Records
---
Amino acid sequence: MAGVKMIRLKSIRDLVHVLGASQVPLVHHIQVDSSHIYFVPIVISSDSSVVYYYASDTPLEGSFLLFDSFTGEVSVSKSWVSDSKYMLVPIVEVDSQNIIPEKLLLRELGVGKRGPRASPAPSTQA
């Protein structure tokens, strides 16, 4: 992707809100240095894309994000939840990728700037 634009979000909840407008409700996770990056790539045109991402010092403890459509709360689950009040978002573990150049990721994470902003971790459901 030639024109990758990065948008850093304040919380994982913001990333779930982006997914509400996305065609594919799926979050990618990759570790870069000591940061855990959760991202959603969105293709705008054949040569341009936007990557919305959330960076944290600690990994989320689970494989699914749960958005409670009644309360607006976001939680993390280690297992599949079959409840119509939740939008279930799988977190896929990325082994390697070529969507975001690693140099760009490291620059976005703030080498010499402030580090990853960590917001309170979502609650975990078993």
---
Amino acid sequence: MPVQELLIYPIKSCGGVRVQEALVTRYGLALPSDPRIYDRRWMIVKDGRHLSQRVLPSMALIQPSFVENGLLLRAPNMPDLLIPVSPLPKEIVHCHCWDEPILGLRYDDTISHWFRRLFQSNDQIDLVIFDEKQFQTRSSKNKPDFPNAAEDHHVAVYHDVCPIHLCSLESVTNLNTRLEKKIKIYNFRPNIIDCWRDVHIGEAKLRWISPSLRCLLPTVDQETGIKDPNQEPWKTLRNYRLKPDAYGIKALLGIYLGQINDSKIASGTIHIGDSIHVIKQELVKALNQSGRLWNELNSENGSDCQSEIVTEELQVTDKILVHDVLTNINADDLREELLNIYPDVKHVKRWQSRDESKAPTKRVQIDFDLSENAKTILQNGFIDIGQFRCPATALKPSGRLQRKLKNSSRSDYKPQIFNERAIQQMFEEQKTTIERVYALF
């Protein structure tokens, strides 16, 4: 899957600029020809607090372009405005971005007047620029009400959460099938268009940090600067792209990424057309655990306790477990649907709760006649069921496949025995991985 588009949004909540290549830095995507110009380095503030399209949708009509030593701003019925990147302004102002304090350097009254005239406001509206040489960044880690996997070196400047936002064309195409008025991917204001988890793109190595929680900003048409009166696509997203236990009623679309290492310098350049390589976590392998541990690991959601921790190296198996499947899908109907795509499906088993209700859980076991289809699904990390993309993990291979693997001179199938503490730890890690994979889509 290749990168389809790259965009840099130099001013928070204003128009983006398409580029053919971008430098991946600690602070986001930057111009390779002038790394001083990078994503969300500038911000418009009113009395020190950031402004956005959520309250001023006409900000979408402010269109920057890159010129020598800075930006050129254009907006309807306004003269062009040059924003220099050097020399930097001198006046330090205390600002807030999402209630988090951060400093900025304020441009002079001439530039402030341009924005007040544009917004037809008498309020104190200023443009500020971040100076990474003297100002402290905002941490992406442990945001309130925003669980994520950010590490200490993941930071943001004037971004909402993280410096790199990646979105899938496929996800937006799927969303448009549910909307009367179609939208464009630019409503979601991503930097990189097309998807997934820990990824290598061109020279850059990036790490998944969190899904992107969608607010009302995508309801603003980026070409007209007008909000949708029906609050679409926000309302539709809340109907089917939720993870209530982690993110409440907030809809998810797109993901945030950060650099894998903590280097303050650029980690590489990416170009339109670069392939996106998904880096998966290696699944673990183990033999059956003791009956006592089996009972300890059993949970009310119907887990059989070995699906997340028992598998084979290189994911060679003919059995998978699919998670987060809607409970009203009958196993027989699901098998008939899957046979259209995977002709070697042998069995489809709907797992039941272990309490007295015996109600179906959100987990479905799929057995294949051959291991190739299972391997493909596990390499992707998911399987599509209807209009839903469901995470998939490996189950222990069937006895027939185990014997075949052990007798093959080319196989490195060597099950290992772990103690109970190690198995418990791997079980918890795999559950976390499943939650993370679900949140990507």
